[in-house]
Amino acid sequence: MEPLPVSRPADVLRSLVFYAVFYTGTVFYVLAAAARLPFGRARFVRVVVNWSRFHRACVVNLLGIRVVLEGELPSSGALLAFKHESFFEAIDLPNLVFMPGIFAKAELLRIPLWGRAAATYGVVPVERDQGARALRHMIASARALVQQDRVLAIFPEGTRVPHGRQAPLGSGFAGLYKLLALPVVPVAVDSGPLYHRTWKRRGTITIRVGAPIPAGLPRPEVEARVITAINALNSLPTPPPEPEPARPVPTGSA
């Protein structure tokens, strides 16, 4: 993978302003969300959506990053499989789709207050070493969200993967695909080079929605198709071919 360019003074300045504004604003959103927890899901979710929109506004107006969505994301009846290169796509999810049910590590739901907030929102806990009981609970939680006409979202690689690299899908993805019997909509994202760094850079983040993959395919086929689709924006520029060495001009007698 090619090294990232050296950060410029303007990148540093924009990033410092972004950190100050976004994280200070986030404190107020967290307090507002906590205050609305006792009053039901609707008020709480409104705060989450507004926080995600606030983040997008900071990314666009403070960092100078343009965000382009290619294609249309479904609002229900599908499992969205996102490429994961940075925190950008995780925070931006409620801005892209209204109230997506999100699969996340179960440990996060054990954090005081945050865990309660996540459960209220509709985060589906994923156990790393899933026993049959944990898997049944996860599927039941996901199906309950589907019955509410909410779309589901997952980062099938299981962790952030640097731009320019591909990773195998987590072992639980195929089981979810089979048991939920939902079409998969792969989503490619190329946020890594701009956002996944201390000093963020100006440029364009593209979110490309792939063609839906129907339910019921064999595991090798669905995994191959998902990997290909979510990495559609992941290739690094191809270097130009090296010029061929000059061939000696034959000489001969007249």
* Span of the ends, CA to CA: 54 Å
Classify the beta-strand content into a percent band: 5-15%
Main sheet: strands, sense, barrel: 7 strands, mixed
Radius of gyration in whole Å, from Cα? 22 Å
Helix content: 40-55%
Poorly predicted sequence stretches spanning 5 or more consecutive residues: 236-254
The residue-averaged pLDDT reads 86
> In what order do the strands lie side by side in the largest sheet?
1-7-6-2-5-3-4
SSE sequence, one letter per element: HHEEHEHEHEHEHEH
Using DSSP, what is the number of strands?
7
The oligomeric status of these chains comes to single chain
Explained architecture:
The longest helix is centred in the first third of the chain and has 28 residues, at 9-36. This protein has a domain at 66-230. Helix 4 (114-121) links the parallel strand 3 and strand 4. The protein has helices at residues 9-36, 41-61, 87-96, 114-121, 132-147, 171-180, 192-195, 219-230; strands at residues 65-70, 79-82, 101-105, 123-126, 152-154, 184-189, 203-209. It is 43% helix and 14% strand. The protein has 254 residues and is of the alpha/beta class.
